[in-house]
Design goal:
alpha/beta; four-stranded parallel sheet; 52% helix; 11 helices; Rossmann fold
Length: 256
Amino acid sequence: MKNFDAKRETERVIDFIRDYYEKNNLGGVILGISGGKDSGVVAGLFVEALGKENVLGVTMPCHSKDEDRIDAKLVSDHYGFELINFDITNTFDSFKSELLNLGNFDLENTKNSDINLKPRLRMATLYYLAALYSSLKGKTYLVAGTSNKCELFVGYFTKGGDSVHDISPIADFTVDEVIQIGEYLKVPEKVLYKKPNDGLSNQTDEDKLGVKYSDIAKFIEDENTVEEDVAAKIRKLHNGNLHKFNIPTYRKTENE
């Protein structure tokens, strides 16, 4: 793996954020704080770039573990930004109850729909709060994305959910690089080294994907460095999720 200069890259990302905000006359940022490393690192980057007073963290439990909220508070306490809790459990349950009007479905039928509904509700919550705080504070708040390069490469995100955001500071960093940035930013260790999971399905990310993030990072750099059976899984995930990146749009042409 290539050498990674965490200090240099961290400072470059901070400059990137500041420049974008200055050029577009923006004010603050809102992001979901999951209690994991990615949101912890993104929070740290924005606090450094904009100041803690311009960062709003949001926890959005939905049949979630209490540990996630506790870990999210570790991050907000460490950096000193405001953290609010917006429980979407009742919203999720109300949505699910409407299914009774369509028929009876077992848990296996709705499993994937349920998992993906949660990030979509969270996306709607973040954008609602961004608009609200923009009005309250008299300055524009953006919604920050928290996906890393490994997740994005294999399409491990939800269309209309965590794929929707206004600025993406860590999308070009692998999981290991994100951790190194987190070490430089002094993200709380309990959060930074926590085994990654989506907080939705009670499975780790790597359990769901069937591959390790370290192998995805190796594959991105040189697929020949990964065992062929693992490379095949990564290739299948990547190719099978390409539809998430582009929406095919018909363009009319003049008749010849």
